[in-house]
Design the sequence.
């Protein structure tokens, strides 16, 4: 074959004249190209060769060159010195470029390709020249496009020293501009005189033989490449374009090889790698080719056996990608593919089967996916079937299902949602378990995850817990990194609890993420705590066991109402809605006994839920679940839901209801008795007996500005007290707080919590909570204003609850927890509150009455209810409650509503004679204080005289200290920081708050 | 009441005193005006105006974002208030000047006026009014008359005649307790370089020929002006010459109290600072013709011994320097010994007085109404204050 081909080529020389003419034309144009510029060549040449296709042009050019070369320069081949080779390469490059220019299709694309070719050619040519007769190789080589690359590289070392590669590189660099080559070429050799003809002329004499070899090779490969790109068409066009017989033969050969396989196989093959198919033909053609093929084959597979197995190999290649799923989706879906088993089992299966299978699979997949999308809801709702397990273990028959059947099947399926990566990585069991759990959670909220989690889930749960909660944990913290203090468990009752129990209780809530400790532990703790509680002597006191129940029911009713209002689509089955559900679980212990399925509340409690998928999937599933199953209220309404839920939870502090069923009653009863035990008797403290300072502090604790008139203060305090008692038993951190016990010691962090503004959407009321312990000062922090998002707060509360539930069952039972979340009035600074109050528009206050919580009978009617777990929502209103009360001191209300500026205006106007009097006394107190004997510790007077910035708090404290300050000058009242500040301003005394605007401690003045 | 006791306990425990620094030699609140665009104003505070100005003009590292626009540079310090007894005091003043609509120090009616047209930000705060020279001057005048700042003995410097005229337009009300100084000499040239001596080509300024510094560059940045005062104090207490209190005649035990010294040269009147203050306040009340007010901070008065005028601020500066700023004192005195700059400094002080007189002469009734200048948007100039703090 090879011989024939070569011969043919030579014989084809008679055709040259046609081609040659253009070539002749071309050279003269080259100079224009060269001289003009790089860009110039394109326009000129198209004139001559515009009609020629690139491949054809290449062919012709190559042929022309060959003809010329062999005729003239066949002898000089021994002169393949570096120079000659270089020349040849240059010439070849030139020719190639010419062809490109002639084609004029796309200058940019082709030049890039061609420069490579010449280089290959050179190498090949060199090798060829060394080994064989020049004429033969070109024809053979022409076919394999890719071979050249390999050949060229390999050949390089052999035939040519270093020089050639350089030349080739240069060419490559100067790809587009033929002129450059010429110029370079000329630069080296003294030919520059004739720019236009030079390229052609030199070729003929010197490099002819070499070029012959090179060029044909080059031309052919170009064709091949195209074939690769467009497999079916390539065969056709190449023969048409190419004059040589070789070209024609190739397609035929390929066809012959390809045809035998089945139709599918063909299709695939056409898209598969062709070169291999071509190779065998080439191999047969020439020995040299065989070697080259060897080289190529090295890259692919065994070279020697290529000839017979050519087609097979191609098939195999086509399969290969299928075998190894490379994309994540492939990985994910691999398990569900029917084909896979087949593939695995019979790797050597004929291409037909594979292709068929593939098609089937595709269809199947489509069928499954489509319905899934459409019916996700329905599918998800249906009880979870072990779909995943099914698929894997039992390979389905590869059957094309009718659309109906497919749909049916799909409908019967349950889906696991998750990213493909999750689907791959996760245990299908886990996912399924998760789904189940979620569904069950929807149905049976009572089930305690800890207690009930079945063995199979348990380790999953543990796994889950470790990884999952990060987001929640983060969400549970405010900007300062403090835990949002939604719940503070009042330790009022804790007083009675033995130390051990306390410790137990504290430990979980100490801020250590619940995840760390296994659920069982917590469980045990809770149990113990509960037992202790039950055995606690205090317990007997609880007379009104039913209270919480009633509250809860009321709450639930409310919740339902809310649900109706809030949720757009009324839940199909009310039971499923969280609100409706929760009450049920509370009411009916029977439900609680229901299976161990982990209960999952949406955002509420990440920690407790044992079987949630790892992070991302968890979230995903979550949403799905809620969208479909729980009818979770839109985010806007979630507050309600959360509040409700929270309250309910507080009612039944520990989720371990299964075990606690018997005890739960007790727990629920607990709050009441403990309330009774509350050291503060229901009768409010006798404010009349308080000192002015105490009163002012009390008012401040409620978030009111200091009030001058004692009577006003008392009345205000009384009202506050009433409202507070009516609403909640405690206000944490308030000076008036009757509860002696400080917040749970373990909860130091919680105590620090920043403010939480709860927005109850329905009512549109913004409730402002100021941090209890830390009173922000100066300009209002911007962080304070934003409403705490429901989810984090919620999560925290739940977390807390869970944590606390274990140990602090009694405490939670005490119902203090609900009170904790109540916005805590900043103890000391009225300023802060003012700011926070700014958020409350007047209209909102009016609306507050319409607020379900506000209007709920719980608040208004029974103080007892106030103490109920429900208190948290209502408690959040504590702040606003004073405004609701008609009898309240108007001053206070007004003040609270004033903007900072307006309020400040009020400041000035409100300075009364009493204040002036106070100021006088303050001045006197300060000036009459004994002067210091230690310069390092000047008296206040001296500090003022020295323009030292006065720390308001300190000065106020000093003024109010018995025996000093105001007391010494006979002023029985006390001064608030605000008064002191005004006094300072009136005196030109530089004053500062102890803390800076941003809460930082001053380090210098 | 457990919470009560707890709170008080906390208070008492937290009364740990920060050791305050001595009264700074200089702390100023300045008003910058863009040279190319006079409508752009900037209010800041600094203990070192030249340095700060160079920062604003990009000649030194630092500065404020608001003054970083190249098209607005260079900036001039057209006005400056000095004499703040502490950084905090200056910052307060600066803030009040930047936020006249919010500052409680400005009378409510005025403030409500200013507040009228203002929108509110999302946070509910009033938007800051746009700065105009007229507005700033008004606010400045108001603040200087306010009780809080009125007793600090502040001094207002004007370095730009145009600005000063705006200030003078409302000179009628006499509540102003601050001292006004004008120095219009060579400001423009001074801007060209930091610390570069302004070449005084101002005809009115006699000091120009002397190569004296003008404008902000003439401000004393250290304790040099009171150096003699300080040395006197050092000597007095080094040799325990304090004797008895000049007011109450009580013997003063060295190191057992805070004793202020009369700043006047040659007068070694020493007394308890409260005695001093009482004495000076009494004089003040007498001057005002009212019975003793309940003021607590004296401004100035007359030394009971030498009957020379004493400025309370100076006295306190020396006192705090003595009791708190030993390092500064050492530095100051060392300098003196080394270089004979003392005389020079003295001269400088005198020159200042002369200059002031000359400027007073310059006062002319000019009723040109400067167009109200609008600053682009001055909402966020709070940064200045922090920057200034940073540069402390």
Sequence:
């Amino acid at each position: 074959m090879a011989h024939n081909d070569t011969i043919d080529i030579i014989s084809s020389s008679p055709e040259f004249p046609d081609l040659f003419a253009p070539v002749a034309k071309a050279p003269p144009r080259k100079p224009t190209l060269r001289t003009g510029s790089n860009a110039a060549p394109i326009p000129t040449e198209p004139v001559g060769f515009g009609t020629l296709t690139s491949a054809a042009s290449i062919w012709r050019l190559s042929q022309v060159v060959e003809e010329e070369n062999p005729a003239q320069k066949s002898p000089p081949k021994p002169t393949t010195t570096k120079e000659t080779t270089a020349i040849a390469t240059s010439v070849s490059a030139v020719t190639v470029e010419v062809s490109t220019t002639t084609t004029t299709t796309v200058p940019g694309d082709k030049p890039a390709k061609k420069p490579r070719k010449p280089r290959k050619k050179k190498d090949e040519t060199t090798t060829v020249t060394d080994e064989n007769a020049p004429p033969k190789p070109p024809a053979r080589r022409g076919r394999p496009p890719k071979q050249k690359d390999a050949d060229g590289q390999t050949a390089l070392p052999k035939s040519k020293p270093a020089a050639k590669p350089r030349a080739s590189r240069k060419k490559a660099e100067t790809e587009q501009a033929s002129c450059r080559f010429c110029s370079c070429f000329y630069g080296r050799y003294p030919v520059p005189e004739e720019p236009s003809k030079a390229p052609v002329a030199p070729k003929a004499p010197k490099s002819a033989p070499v070029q012959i070899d090179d060029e044909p090779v080059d031309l052919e490969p170009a064709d091949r490449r195209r074939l690769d790109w467009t497999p079916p068409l390539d065969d056709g066009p190449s023969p048409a374009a190419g004059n040589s017989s070789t070209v024609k033969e190739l397609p035929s050969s390929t066809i012959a090889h390809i045809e035998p396989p089945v139709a599918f196989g063909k299709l695939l093959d056409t898209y598969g790698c062709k070169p291999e198919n071509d190779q065998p033909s080439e191999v047969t053609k020439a020995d040299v080719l065989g070697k080259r093929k060897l080289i190529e084959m090295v890259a692919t597979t065994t070279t020697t056996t290529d000839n017979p197995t050519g087609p097979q190999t191609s098939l195999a290649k086509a399969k290969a990608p299928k075998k190894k799923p490379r994309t994540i989706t492939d990985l994910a879906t691999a398990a569900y593919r029917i084909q896979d088993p087949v593939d695995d089992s019979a790797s050597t299966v004929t291409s037909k089967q594979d292709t068929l299978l593939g098609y089937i699979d595709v269809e199947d997949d489509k069928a499954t996916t489509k319905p899934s999308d459409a019916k996700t809801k329905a599918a998800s709702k249906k009880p979870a079937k072990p779909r995943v397990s099914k698929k894997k273990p039992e390979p389905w028959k590869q059957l094309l299902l009718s659309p109906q059947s497919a749909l049916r099947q799909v409908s019967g399926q349950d889906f696991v949602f998750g990213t493909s990566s999750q689907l791959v990585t996760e245990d299908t069991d886990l996912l399924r378990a998760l789904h189940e759990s979620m569904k069950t959670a929807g149905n049976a909220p009572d089930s305690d995850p800890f207690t009930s989690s079945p063995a199979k889930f348990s380790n999953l749960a543990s796994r889950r817990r470790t990884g999952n909660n990060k987001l929640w944990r983060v969400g549970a913290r405010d900007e300062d990194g403090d835990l949002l203090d939604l719940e503070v468990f009042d330790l009022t009752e804790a007083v009675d609890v033995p130390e051990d129990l306390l410790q137990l209780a504290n430990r979980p809530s100490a801020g250590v993420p619940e995840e760390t400790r296994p659920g069982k532990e917590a469980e045990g703790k809770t149990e113990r705590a509960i037992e202790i509680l039950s055995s606690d002597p205090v317990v007997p006191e609880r007379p009104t066991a039913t209270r919480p129940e009633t509250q809860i029911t009321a709450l639930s009713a409310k919740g339902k109402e809310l649900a109706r209002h809030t949720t757009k689509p009324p839940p199909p089955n009310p039971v499923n809605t969280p609100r409706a559900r929760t009450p049920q679980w509370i009411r009916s212990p029977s439900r609680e006994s229901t299976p161990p399925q982990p209960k999952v509340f949406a955002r509420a409690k990440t920690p407790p839920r044992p079987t949630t998928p790892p992070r991302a999937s968890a979230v995903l599933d979550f949403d799905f679940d809620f969208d479909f199953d729980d009818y979770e209220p839109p985010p806007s309404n979630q507050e309600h839901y959360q509040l409700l839920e929270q309250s309910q939870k507080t009612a039944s502090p520990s989720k371990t209801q299964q075990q606690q069923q018997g005890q739960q009653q007790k727990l629920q009863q607990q709050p009441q008795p403990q309330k009774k035990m509350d050291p503060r008797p229901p009768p409010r403290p006798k404010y009349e007996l308080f000192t002015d300072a105490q009163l002012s502090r009390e008012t401040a604790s409620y978030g009111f500005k200091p009030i001058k008139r004692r009577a006003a203060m008392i009345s205000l305090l009384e009202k506050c007290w009433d409202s507070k008692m009516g609403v909640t038993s405690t206000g944490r951190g308030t000076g008036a707080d009757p509860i002696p016990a400080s917040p749970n010691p373990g909860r130091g962090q919680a105590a620090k919590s920043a403010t939480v503004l709860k927005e109850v959407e329905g009512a549109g009321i913004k409730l402002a909570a100021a941090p209890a312990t830390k009173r922000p000062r100066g300009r209002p922090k911007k962080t304070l204003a934003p409403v705490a998002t429901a989810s984090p707060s919620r999560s925290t509360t739940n977390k807390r609850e869970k944590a606390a539930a274990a140990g602090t069952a009694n405490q939670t039972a005490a119902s203090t927890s609900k009170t904790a979340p109540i916005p805590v009035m900043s103890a000391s600074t009225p300023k802060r509150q003012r700011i926070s109050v700014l958020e409350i528009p007047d209209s909102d206050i009016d609306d507050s009455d319409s607020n379900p919580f506000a209007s709920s009978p719980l608040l208004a009617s029974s103080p007892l209810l106030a103490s109920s777990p429900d208190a948290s929502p209502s408690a959040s209103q504590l702040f606003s409650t004073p405004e609701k009360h008609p009898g309240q001191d108007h001053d206070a209300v007004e003040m609270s509503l004033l903007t900072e500026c307006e309020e400040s205006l009020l400041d000035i106007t409100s300075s009364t004679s009493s204040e002036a009097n106070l100021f006088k006394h303050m001045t006197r107190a300060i000036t009459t204080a004994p002067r210091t004997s230690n310069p390092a510790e000047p008296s206040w007077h001296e500090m003022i005289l020295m323009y030292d910035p006065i720390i308001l708090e300190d000065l106020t404290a000093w003024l109010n200290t018995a025996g000093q300050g105001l007391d010494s000058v006979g002023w029985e009242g006390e001064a608030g920081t605000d008064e002191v500040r005004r006094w300072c301003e009136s005196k030109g005394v530089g004053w500062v708050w102890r803390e800076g605007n941003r809460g930082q401690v001053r380090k210098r003045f | 009441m457990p919470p009560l006791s707890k709170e008080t306990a906390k208070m008492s425990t937290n009364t740990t005193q920060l050791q305050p620094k001595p009264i700074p030699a200089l702390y100023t609140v300045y008003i910058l005006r863009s040279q190319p665009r006079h409508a752009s104003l900037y209010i800041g505070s600094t203990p070192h105006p030249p340095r700060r100005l160079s920062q604003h003009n990009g000649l030194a590292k630092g500065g404020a974002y608001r003054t970083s626009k190249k098209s607005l540079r260079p900036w001039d310090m057209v006005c400056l208030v000095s004499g703040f007894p502490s950084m905090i005091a200056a910052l307060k003043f600066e803030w009040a000047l930047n936020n006249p609509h919010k500052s409680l120090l400005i009378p409510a009616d005025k403030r409500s006026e200013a507040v009228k047209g203002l929108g509110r930000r999302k946070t509910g705060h009033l938007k800051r009014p746009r700065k105009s020279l007229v507005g700033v001057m008004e606010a400045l005048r108001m603040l200087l008359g306010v009780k809080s700042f009125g007793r600090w003995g502040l001094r207002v410097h004007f370095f730009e005649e145009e600005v000063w005229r705006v200030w003078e337009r409302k000179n009628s009300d006499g509540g102003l307790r601050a001292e006004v100084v004008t120095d219009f000499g060579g400001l423009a040239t001074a801007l060209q370089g930091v610390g570069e001596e302004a070449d005084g080509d101002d005809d009115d300024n006699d000091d120009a020929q002397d190569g004296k510094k003008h404008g902000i560059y003439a401000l004393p940045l250290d304790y040099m002006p009171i150096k003699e005062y300080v040395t006197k104090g050092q000597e007095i207490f080094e040799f325990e010459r304090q004797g008895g209190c000049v007011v109450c005649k009580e013997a003063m035990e060295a190191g057992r109290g805070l004793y202020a010294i009369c700043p006047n040269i040659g007068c070694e009147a020493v007394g308890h600072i409260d005695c001093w203050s009482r004495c000076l306040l009494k004089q003040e009340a007498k001057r005002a013709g009212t019975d003793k007010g309940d003021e607590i901070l004296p401004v100035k008065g007359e030394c009971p011994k030498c009957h020379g005028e004493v400025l309370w601020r100076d006295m306190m500066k020396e006192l705090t320097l003595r009791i708190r700023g030993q390092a500064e004192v050492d530095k100051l005195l060392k300098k003196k010994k080394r270089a004979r700059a003392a005389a020079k400094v003295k001269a400088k002080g005198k020159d200042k007085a002369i200059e002031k007189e000359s400027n007073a002469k310059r006062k002319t009734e000019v009723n040109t109404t400067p167009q109200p200048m609008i600053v682009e948007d001055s909402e966020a100039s709070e940064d200045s204050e922090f920057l200034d703090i940073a540069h402390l």
About this structure: The first strand of chain B starts at residue 28 and ends at 34.
